[in-house]
Design goal:
The chain is 31% helix and 31% strand. The protein is built from ten helices and 19 strands. It has helices spanning 15-28, 89-97, 106-113, 115-124, 142-149, 176-184, 229-233, 248-264, 298-306, 310-319; strands at residues 2-9, 34-42, 45-50, 53-58, 63-66, 69-71, 75-78, 100-101, 128-129, 132-136, 154-158, 168-170, 189-194, 199-208, 211-214, 218-222, 238-241, 270-277, 282-288.
């Protein structure tokens, strides 16, 4: 029986979704193989709860003491979307302690979490990306640079964030300043990208039993102007078609690009690659190295379409590192 720490929560706007992801993993873990411990991480407070009682994690060795029993973990299931679970910080910590974990490593996590840097690397691999500009907080030229270098409409979003928190679609120049201010409330740097018209397709990829497996491609059809936080997590605000109703050659191409990026970026665990398909080209949007895995999330639906239950999905992830 392996002791598995499920780390959830974090310090971003995705805290609530992360806790739901962690809980879902706890509820669906194979109890014949694994003993799950849901660890809530929030700032300096790292706790395991039994009812209303909290037991702190010893950060010196990432262990847990309950009464006279000291619990050490055989592996960590990373369910934190955003910092510190998706940006490489926890990965570096676990690397120093020699504890295995389910997500990508430190370098890949840090790179992919920075949307602008990741786009530059992906473009270097020959994959199309939207034209964009990248700013740091305090840049007084940001507004003028956007209007000078990009064509409206544009998407304005935190450069290091997820779940579309702080993201806006700007159709008119007069709305640009407000969108920049909103994004800077979530992050010290932002990215502004030109709008690409097309269908939003996404592909999950997992490493299991030594093989890299691309899941069935999914199309996201938002009832909002774009796939924002509300559309992602409020029931009925978006339709996720699994598998996507696209020609086989389009689906195969999406999976081929995703498989190649998984290898090139040195990904581990399960990740999700997002694209806009114009009818002719795929434009890379981003890679999610700790994608949502709540009951309403896309990745579990992809796994189901592939033929796996939720339990089989997380078991395969854990078996890969233990």
């Amino acid at each position: 029986m392996y002791n598995i720490a499920i780390v959830a929560g974090g310090d971003s706007g995705e805290y609530g979704i992360s806790m739901k992801s962690g809980k879902q993993v706890e509820l669906n873990m194979d109890l014949g193989k694994f003993r799950p411990f849901l660890i809530e991480i929030r700032g300096a407070k790292w706790n395991y709860k039994i009812g209303t009682k909290s037991f702190p994690i010893d950060k010196n060795d990432f262990s847990l003491t309950i009464g006279k029993r000291k619990i050490r973990f055989d592996a960590v299931f990373v369910a934190i979307h955003g910092t510190p679970g998706e940006d490489g910080r926890l990965q570096g910590y676990f690397d120093m302690l020699g504890i295995k974990y389910t997500s990508c490593g430190l370098t890949t996590s840090a790179l992919s979490f920075n949307k602008s840097f990741c786009k530059d690397v992906v473009a270097g691999y020959g994959v199309d990306v939207a034209r964009s500009v990248h700013f740091y907080i305090g840049d007084k030229e940001a507004l003028g640079t956007v209007t000078k270098k990009l064509k409206l409409p544009v998407f304005v979003k935190p450069n290091c964030g997820g779940s579309s928190v702080g993201m806006s679609k700007v159709n008119h120049k007069k709305d640009l300043k407000k969108a920049l201010e909103l994004a800077f409330k979530e992050d010290n740097e932002i990215i502004v990208e030109e709008f690409i018209k097309g269908r939003e397709l996404t592909c999950g990829v997992i490493r299991s039993q030594g093989k890299i497996i691309p899941f069935p491609v999914t199309e996201i059809i938002s009832k909002k102007e774009f796939f924002d936080f509300e559309a992602k997590y409020q029931r009925g605000m978006a339709e996720e078609v699994v598998p996507a109703e696209v020609p086989l050659n389009v689906s195969d191409k999406c999976r081929e690009i995703s498989l190649n990026l998984f290898r090139k970026l040195n990904c581990r665990g399960i990740v999700r690659f997002d694209y806009i398909f114009t009818g002719k080209k795929f434009y890379f949007l981003e890679v999610n190295t700790v994608p949502g895995i709540t009951s309403a999330s896309i990745v579990p639906k992809m796994a189901k379409a592939y033929g796996w239950t939720y339990t089989e999905m997380i078991t395969n992830l854990l078996n890969e590192i233990i």
